[in-house]
Amino acid sequence: MLFNSITFFIFLPIVFIFYWFFFKSSKEYQNILILLASYVFYGWWDYRFLFLILLSTLVDFFTGIHIEKCKSRKTRNFFLGLSIFFNLGVLAIFKYYNFFISAITSSFLEIGLNVNFETLNIILPVGISFYTFQTLSYTIDIWKGGLKPTRNFINFAGFVSFFPQLVAGPIERASSLLPQFEIPRKFNSELAISGINLMIWGLFKKVVIADNAAVYTNVIFENYDNSNSLTLILGTVYFAFQIYCDFSGYSDIAIGTGRLFGFRLMRNFNYPYFSRNISEFWKRWHISLSTWFRDYLYIPLGGSKMNMIFTIRNILIVFLVSGLWHGANWTFILWGGIHAFLFLPVFFLKPSNSKVSGPLVLNISNILKICFTFSMVCMAWVFFRSKNVYEAIDYLMRIFQNQEFKITYLSIERYNIELIGLILFFVIFEWFHKNSEHPFSGKFRILKILFIIFITLVMGKFFDYKQFIYFQF
Amino acid sequence: MKRFLKYLILIILFTYGLMYFLDLIYTELYRNGHPRNKLQNELKLKDQHYDIGFYGSSRIERHINCELIEKLTGKTCVNLGFAGANLADMKMLAEINKSNGVTFDTIFFQIDYNYNFENYSPYFLANLAPYLDEAFVEHVFSKRDEYGYYKWIPFYKYMRNEKVLGVRELISVLLQTKNGRNTNIGYRPLKGVGLAVRGKFPDSLKHQNSKVIGLEKLYPSGMLYFFTAPYCQNIQNREISLGLAGKIKNYRNYHDLFDNNAEYFYDCGHLNDKGAEAFTEQLIFDYNF
């Protein structure tokens, strides 16, 4: 089920009414309802993969209990290993099997051996990378001693499959979300209203900015070999806004939906394109994933506590794995690698810049830094968006080789001008609200909401690009 | 909860009210504003008589030079073809024209592999949406899945057909700007030479097409003609169109007319201006206009 579909607009009020009007006195019934609703939500896409979620839930529920129960370190390690093996195994089969098989086959071919491994004809279950990472964090936290396992299967299953964030995050930590299932929830109007506002803002980002940008991004990337430098640059900028608004729009709707049911989900984006360097970008972009990798990969590898070589190794591993997390393609791995190389100098030259700090004021220095960071991010997005590495390199080479900056494309495609206008409006709107989580605060709050609803209705694409990009990850 | 519900109701009421208001404005402008495409123009034709009329897809719009016919024969002519038109669209346009008092002495329909399609084209359906409250349009939509949404959710039809009837198009209607499409009822020539193939003929033709049967009932046999316009040789299965002769009365097949004239083609399915002129002259000769 998609957030931007009529089905969801019918589904959500039904669940809401049952949740707050029929089951409001019993958190147990509310949790059962959340669980059922989550399975319906997911099953609407493909009910066959519900068994995977259920299996993942069962494995981690019981391994979690056993990790805590067992006194011997060896047994605890065994159960943690079992959880990791199962979750990563599922990911490996459904997401990476074909990629690794192709990589192995071509490696053998390089050394003159012609081997033929069978690839699998399987569909990638929606959201698999999100919920497996969520359940992994649960067992790892118990193993580390930072979390007590729950004995309530319904609560745990609700935590794993919580429908607002099931298919594209934010990737919640058990220590933050699970306790919310265990306490009675009282309706909080303020929270619910902020939820509705976030949903409106998220929908605007998705159907107005992302889906309009998608039209041109697709055309430009499909025909990049016939485009001039200006068009290719525009293509990268459009894609940058497409992916940002698509994904952060989804996150906003997810967080907003969670709030309607009394749940507080973590913030996933914090105006990433206003970052002044790559390090700051990663503190503002897909925060739930970057902090996951920090806590469960970078720090266990030793973080920056060892010598420089090991620190570089750790940073490289984190970024490459982060790239691979997005998809089984060399383009994603290279995207991660590029970010690592952009990140390393900033990390070593400005070790104190470990927080998103300092007010983001409008001055020449900040504008230059923001523009430079944004252009680096856009350059890396070319790899993310292209079908293969060759195409990405060719795309970037053409920007520099073609050297033609005629506005032919702009004048032919009349809508293109409007898209640039929309993006500029969006950037300015975000800039003036960068200190709050969404723009519907402060003076003229209601007017701003009504204006955004108006723009969404008249400029939104509700039927052409419904799918969210991050569903495929 | 009360505060939240009040807020939610305010948002819903505003959204619904806005959709209702937008629906009124869009409908009014698309129905009565400056026509921006050929179809909108055609839907506005009233009480006119033409000696010759041509219905079809881009293979009429791009092929039939009515000005040339008028110049050579002195007869009035109208080219009612528009890109992507299916037989269902043509039949409905013919019915609308008939009910609007638009009459012809002779009518031609261009027919090819579209014989296999009974459905309306998406572009035609999108353009019909503003006329939903009219019986002939409601009849078309009443059998479709989106009918309920179109009827009961204001502005839904414009959101769904945003590409054709969106705000950008509306602004152009308001500003009365011209676009690349033909706003005149007539011929739109293609410039250039080429034989690029877009699509192919199906392996077989349907037994019959209800729209063709409908057209044969709509107009008397003496004034209704069908033909297949030329294709280049590169298109796959084009000989299948020969089978149309056994299925349709008053039919002529020109699929191979310009096999030795590659210079007449813009692409494999469309003639350029030079080819269109030659083809129009051929029709004048064959039908003795």
From TrEMBL, chain A:
<keyword id="KW-0812">Transmembrane</keyword>
<feature type="transmembrane region" description="Helical">
    <location>
        <begin position="444"/>
        <end position="463"/>
    </location>
</feature>
<feature type="transmembrane region" description="Helical">
    <location>
        <begin position="415"/>
        <end position="432"/>
    </location>
</feature>
<feature type="transmembrane region" description="Helical">
    <location>
        <begin position="361"/>
        <end position="384"/>
    </location>
</feature>
<feature type="transmembrane region" description="Helical">
    <location>
        <begin position="308"/>
        <end position="326"/>
    </location>
</feature>
<dbReference type="GO" id="GO:0005886">
    <property type="term" value="C:plasma membrane"/>
</dbReference>
<keyword id="KW-0012">Acyltransferase</keyword>
<dbReference type="InterPro" id="IPR024194">
    <property type="entry name" value="Ac/AlaTfrase_AlgI/DltB"/>
</dbReference>
<feature type="transmembrane region" description="Helical">
    <location>
        <begin position="119"/>
        <end position="140"/>
    </location>
</feature>
<keyword id="KW-0472">Membrane</keyword>
<dbReference type="InterPro" id="IPR028362">
    <property type="entry name" value="AlgI"/>
</dbReference>
<dbReference type="InterPro" id="IPR004299">
    <property type="entry name" value="MBOAT_fam"/>
</dbReference>
<feature type="transmembrane region" description="Helical">
    <location>
        <begin position="51"/>
        <end position="67"/>
    </location>
</feature>
<keyword id="KW-1003">Cell membrane</keyword>
<feature type="transmembrane region" description="Helical">
    <location>
        <begin position="6"/>
        <end position="22"/>
    </location>
</feature>
<dbReference type="GO" id="GO:0042121">
    <property type="term" value="P:alginic acid biosynthetic process"/>
</dbReference>
<protein>
    <submittedName>
        <fullName>MBOAT family protein</fullName>
    </submittedName>
</protein>
<feature type="transmembrane region" description="Helical">
    <location>
        <begin position="79"/>
        <end position="99"/>
    </location>
</feature>
<comment type="similarity">
    <text>Belongs to the membrane-bound acyltransferase family.</text>
</comment>
<dbReference type="Pfam" id="PF03062">
    <property type="entry name" value="MBOAT"/>
</dbReference>
<keyword id="KW-0808">Transferase</keyword>
<dbReference type="GO" id="GO:0016746">
    <property type="term" value="F:acyltransferase activity"/>
</dbReference>
From TrEMBL, chain B:
<keyword id="KW-0812">Transmembrane</keyword>
<protein>
    <submittedName>
        <fullName>Uncharacterized protein</fullName>
    </submittedName>
</protein>
<keyword id="KW-0472">Membrane</keyword>
<keyword id="KW-1133">Transmembrane helix</keyword>
<feature type="transmembrane region" description="Helical">
    <location>
        <begin position="7"/>
        <end position="26"/>
    </location>
</feature>
